[in-house]
Design goal:
repeat, two-stranded antiparallel ribbon, globular, ANK repeat, mainly alpha, Ankyrin_rpt, 758 residues, Ankyrin_rpt-contain_sf, Ankyrin repeat domain-containing protein
Length: 758
């Protein structure tokens, strides 16, 4: 592992895990990534899928490999989001950091892994794996001999060289290789070992091999001892922050005479305070830097000086120089600076976005790190690794960051005489002081125009006149040859606008004029256009069709080529899930709004608000969270929101009938909608089938079962960590008709049926 920065990166940890089970092999890309601190988080997900799940599945089967993958992901999430992202490690070297991590954090996850493996595949008790008495492989071979009759039968059929190999394992001459464990089932007489579960046996052998490998490395003995103690004692969790602080407190005195200089810089170079005399701060930075960096233990604080020098350049009006310094500060802070990484990234984003030519490569690296450390969530749904800017960042984000420059660096914090031109980026709603004098160009029916006064939006003129519900002009443009297979710069299409005119769920209310849809749907549509969604709000034609409440509209959009499994809306819904949610609202609107208002403020919810608020609430998830919490405390806001919800409900109930929505659900299912599609709301892992069970829509639930609905599928309750399936949902919500259906199919799912079905 590299000693350049204290926290190991996740690829280093992955490589270590693969070595423990002898599956590292030769992987140049993994070795490259193990030396990087800037990486595409999607590539990490790919590596885990390929090298943890897929490779391990060949050796220990899908059940055990899924447990290992889930535990490894849980470990990385907690490590990256709560340790690396939050706890500064300035002055701590790699060796010291590994001792801290091994002391407690790593141990608790190793223990969790063996406990979960025991629950899934049985085998020796969890405490067995952490004995300090000799070889774990030897102990497991003895356990197999005593507990698995099929093992002894199989060993008796082996040739001498293979028996010698197993004997060498028992003596501890060498650790068994993954390959030798794998082919052990292929040698000897298979007739004698048919009662031996080889997937389980190989999984146990690989675990024992990994434990013995850990015992041989530096710190390994301590890890095993701590794991054994952890199984005995419930309250032995160690605070990583406290352990790191102990190390840092021992070197704090080395700051010496630089301490008052640093305090002055930290206080006076804040972004929001009045300041003057830039030369004085340049001198202070240089003086403090010379003192600090002369100490070997404090050289890692270079990023702090680059960060404050970058601020100084912004305050002085030198944004290009600031950008270069932010790059240095960003790179040196990664896997070292704790929460300061977040502050550096946020400042760097608005600077890089505000350059005359935005630094797109730098912005992409910044966004990758925001996601990797859990400071933000991906804005692009594409799960494939990509170095393209557009595969990581959408245009609206770039404009949002640019428009937020004056929020992060307000005029009051700049040196006297320094000014930046106010950004004309998209912040706040698109406003018109009056209907623009835009005349249709019938000679060029596909002409593109720019509209707006608060900011500009580019679109084909047909889309503009559809938005303004000017039917005669729209009709004439199409007759003159205007194509419907076009989109605006943010993904608006003619078919989407025509459907949104009939959307009964929108506030303010739409005209519901169906002439525009009839006009547009007469034209031939490409598969791409009918499935195009807008960038920011992710409006999607098939979902807009559902929200008309009209089965005939949904049927027509499906006939035009809409994909029923395409995702839309800010929280990535399917049309079927949206449809069933609306059914729930119509059935019990009071409960629907209670549930909506009580929803946890998750990153997905925050991102949804960000996408709808045009930058008014800020650009980071923390900004949005603070805004929402303040609103929830404001009685006037709550009252106003209740009135809007009440009026919206009345409007929806008037135009959206339960029978029609049930028919729409059946149309979507008949078109191939996935009834088991997982969603992030109302809770991560929830499916349309679960929604139907919750609402006791028995006919719909039964139809879904015939279309492959999986009642065993579960989500994990974030509050209790309990797995919840359709049986649990039906019981909790008192869904009597759904419970009757589940009772009828109970015999097919004996392991998942809850005790209430008897």
């Amino acid at each position: 592992m590299s000693t350049e920065y204290p926290y190991p990166n996740p690829f280093e940890i992955l490589r270590l895990v693969l070595r423990a089970v002898d599956l590292k092999q030769s992987n140049k890309r993994l070795d490259e990534l193990a030396g990087k601190r800037k990486f595409d988080p999607r590539e990490l997900n790919d590596m885990i899928e390929q090298h943890v799940y897929q490779v391990l599945a060949k050796y220990m089967g899908p059940l055990a490999s899924q447990v290992v993958k889930d535990c490894f992901n849980d470990f990385l999430d907690e490590y990256l989001y709560t340790v690396v992202a939050r706890i500064p490690a300035d002055g701590v070297n790699r060796e010291e950091m590994l001792r801290v991590l091994a002391k407690g954090f790593l141990v608790e996850h190793i223990v969790a892994l063996v406990v979960q493996l025991h629950e899934k595949i049985s085998g020796p008790a969890p405490s067995f794996w952490f004995s300090n008495q000799g070889s774990t492989v030897k102990a497991l071979l003895e356990w197999l001999r005593d507990k698995e009759p099929g093992w002894n039968k199989h060993i008796s059929t082996l040739k001498k060289e293979h028996k010698d190999m197993v004997s060498a394992w028992a003596r501890g001459d060498d650790l068994p290789s993954a390959y030798s464990i794998s082919f052990l089932s292929d040698v000897g007489s298979s007739d004698e070992s048919t009662d031996l579960d080889w997937q389980k046996t190989k999984a146990l052998l690989l675990v024992s091999r990994a434990i013995d490998w850990v015992k041989r490395i530096s710190l390994g003995g301590g890890i095993i001892d701590s794991a054994r103690v952890s199984l005995w004692e419930a309250n032995n969790k160690i605070s990583i922050a406290s352990e790191i602080y102990k190390i840092q407190s021992c070197i704090q005195h080395r700051l010496g005479p630089a301490q008052p200089l640093i305090s002055e810089l930290q206080h006076n170079l804040r972004r929001t305070v009045n300041k003057s005399n830039p030369d004085r701060y340049r001198h202070l930075i240089a003086e403090a830097q010379a003192m600090i960096l002369s100490s070997e233990h404090l050289k890692s604080t270079q990023y702090w000086f680059d960060w404050h020098e970058a601020r100084l350049q912004v305050f002085s009006g030198n944004i290009e120089s600031a950008n270069e310094l932010y790059k240095s500060a960003f790179e040196d802070s990664l896997f070292r600076a704790g929460e300061n990484q977040k502050f550096i990234i946020e400042e760097a984003m608005v600077v890089a976005a505000s350059l005359p030519n935005p630094d797109r490569v730098f912005l992409k690296d910044l966004k990758w790190s925001l996601i990797s450390f859990g400071y933000d969530i991906p804005s692009i749904s594409n799960g494939k690794p990509s170095s393209k800017f557009s595969d990581t960042i959408e245009d609206w984000e770039l404009k949002l960051w640019k428009s937020s420059f004056s929020v992060i660096f307000p005029k009051t914090g700049l040196f006297p005489g320094v000014e930046y031109t106010d950004s004309q980026a998209e912040k706040g709603p698109l406003l018109f002081t009056g209907k623009p004098e835009i005349k249709p160009d019938y000679r060029n029916p596909n002409r593109k125009i720019k509209v707006g006064e608060s900011w500009k939006k580019s679109m084909p003129q047909l889309i503009w006149f559809l938005m303004n519900e000017d039917f005669e002009i729209s009709k004439k443009l199409i007759h003159k040859g205007a194509s419907v297979n076009v989109e605006s710069d943010v993904g608006d299409t003619p078919i989407l606008i025509a459907l949104e005119i009939m959307n009964v769920t929108d506030v303010p209310y739409k005209s519901l004029d169906e002439r525009f849809f009839e006009l547009i749907c007469e034209q031939s549509h490409t598969h791409e256009i009918i499935n195009t969604r807008t960038q920011k709000k992710r409006l999607l034609p098939i979902i807009s069709a559902v929200e008309t409440g009209r089965p005939d509209i949904v049927k027509k959009v499906l006939e035009l080529g809409a994909d029923p499994n395409k995702r839309g809306d800010t929280d990535e819904q399917t049309a079927l899930n949206v449809c069933i949610k609306r059914i729930g609202m119509i059935r019990n609107s009071e409960y629907y709004w209670q549930h909506q208002n009580a929803m946890d403020i998750t990153p997905v919810v925050l991102d949804s608000v960000r996408r709808h608020s045009q930058g008014v609430c800020g650009f980071t998830l923390d900004h949005i969270s603070s805004h929402m919490k303040n609103n929830r405390k404001d009685p006037l806001f709550s009252k106003r929101q209740s009135l809007i919800n009440e009026q919206s409900t009345q409007h929806i109930m008037k135009h959206m009938k339960i029978e029609s929505m049930l028919e729409i659900a059946k149309l979507l299912i008949a078109a191939g909608a996935d009834v088991n599609a997982e969603h992030v709301s109302p809770v991560n892992g929830h499916t349309p089938l679960m929604l139907a069970a919750e609402l006791d829509e028995a006919d719909l639930f039964e139809l879904m079962l015939t279309k492959g609905g999986d009642p065993e599928k579960f989500y994990v309750d974030p509050r209790t960590n309990k797995k919840i399936n359709c049986w649990d949902i039906s019981e909790y919500f008192g869904s009597t008709r759904t419970k009757n259906i589940l009772r009828d199919i109970q015999r097919f799912f004996p392991s998942s049926s809850s005790s209430f079905i008897s």
